[in-house]
Specification:
By secondary structure, this protein is an alpha/beta fold. It has helices spanning 16-28, 44-55, 73-80; strands spanning 9-11, 33-37, 60-63. The longest helix has 13 residues, at 16-28.
């Protein structure tokens, strides 16, 4: 595949590492689609920071999944009767 046909995607989590990555790519002139998957359970400052980055010119695609009729991680946990715990990593299986 020719180099010009390669499309880059960045999974943006709202943290320091993914923010540094998108800033570096912009500085280097590398185009990438920035994608944020909204769990519906993020801290308020995460949503505010995404708004801030958008005002600064970053185009961020926000995906809002609907899993089993649930629009947030909290709703999903309540429906399943699960409590997220560090030693029981069910959400990454």
């Amino acid at each position: 595949m020719p180099k010009n046909d390669v499309r880059h995607y960045i999974s943006y989590g709202g943290g320091v590492n993914s923010t540094a990555l998108i800033c570096l790519l912009q500085e280097l002139g590398i185009e990438a689609e920035i994608v944020f998957c909204d769990t519906g359970a993020e801290m308020p400052h995460t949503y505010e920071y995404i708004k801030y980055l958008r005002r600064k010119g970053f185009e961020i695609t926000v995906l809002k999944p609907n899993v089993d009729g649930c629009s947030s991680l909290y709703e999903y946990c309540v429906k399943r009767g699960w409590v997220p715990l560090a030693f029981n990593r069910w959400c990454t299986k």
